[in-house]
Design goal:
Layout: E1 4-6, E2 12-19, E3 27-33, E4 46-50, H1 69-79, E5 86-90, H2 96-100, H3 112-122, H4 127-145, E6 155-160, H5 162-173, E7 180-184, H6 192-200, E8 210-215, H7 225-237, E9 246-250, H8 258-264, H9 266-272
Parallel strand pairs: 4-5, 4-6, 6-7, 7-8, 8-9
Antiparallel strand pairs: 1-2, 2-3, 3-5
Helix pairs in contact: 6-7
Length: 285
């Protein structure tokens, strides 16, 4: 399927419409190419992002404010030696919760009741099928169509809320595919401490992976601090080093919405792309 080329003032935006996702709902996928892509022969790192309809166009976003992730990459190109990055935005569907809820942790005895409850309300988890599609179908399409750096050091995955959970799950399930994950406002309360512990038990090798977490303090984010602190303790025990292989940031006053994620998206992008962090962020938790 050929993409539809759309206008984008900061680069080139292409859209694949109604891609088939085995075991899940079809969805659109947006691919953003950085300024200068067409005129160069360079290969670029790729960031895969969930909730793709919220990334580039405020008219499509749930809150009429987009993440501005393309603009953030352009700023990083101006501020650092980054020559660009390819952004792949995978739209969510009406089955967002079962598609983004990590499936294997629900097999743990401590989470079996939650698994039955979520299945009764929303249907059985589809996250394993969703991730298989990304790895087996979507990534090969992107790698053969665009000039990518296909290895894990240059392949990252990113999302917010439930998108934060599925991003961490993707890194744990496919550590040979993804080298980094950015998890903004990770929705730990859906499974509480048991979910934190189950996902921490599957963390990939800190010598080869980078993980970013953050949270605000208002709205849904007001519930996140104790769960994220529990995960931070697991990160240390697993050998992750704050400011190097792992970064957790708190944003006091930040809400749980696109405006809040837009305001700080440059930081997780820096981290997953392996760029130098602003000095004040190097060792903050």
């Amino acid at each position: 399927m050929q993409p539809v080329q759309l206008s984008d003032g900061t680069g080139v935006l292409q859209r694949y419409v109604d891609l088939t996702v085995p075991g899940c709902e079809p969805r659109n996928v947006d691919v953003w190419l950085p300024p200068g892509y067409a005129a160069s022969a360079e290969r670029y790192p790729v960031v895969y992002l969930h909730d793709g309809q919220n990334l580039f166009d405020p008219l499509l976003s749930n809150t009429e404010i987009d993440w501005g992730v393309d603009e953030a990459v352009v700023r990083l190109m101006q501020q650092t030696d980054l020559s660009g990055a390819i952004l792949v935005g995978m739209w969510c569907t009406a089955q967002r919760r079962p598609e983004y809820m990590p499936a294997k942790p629900l097999e743990q005895p401590t989470l079996a009741g939650l698994g039955r409850q979520l299945t009764a309300l929303y249907g059985a988890p589809r996250s394993d099928a969703y991730l298989r599609w990304i790895v087996a179908d979507l990534k090969p399409l992107i790698d053969r169509t665009y000039r990518t750096l296909p290895g894990p050091p240059s392949t990252s995955i990113m999302g917010s809320s439930m998108g934060g959970l599925i991003s961490l799950y993707a890194l744990s399930e496919y550590p040979a595919v993804f080298g980094a994950a950015a998890c903004l406002s990770t929705h730990w309360p859906i499974g509480g401490a048991a979910l934190v512990d189950a996902m921490a038990a599957a963390l990939p090798d800190p010598a080869e992976h980078r993980i970013y977490f953050d949270y605000g303090s208002r709205g849904l984010d007001a519930e996140y601090a104790p769960f994220q602190q529990r995960m931070d303790a697991h990160m240390q025990q697993a050998g992750y080093v704050q400011g190097r292989s792992w970064l957790t940031r708190a944003f006091p006053g930040a809400e749980h919405n696109e405006a809040a994620w837009r305001a700080r998206v440059e930081l997780p992008l820096r981290f997953v792309l392996g760029l130098e962090l602003p000095q004040a962020n190097q060792d903050e938790a």
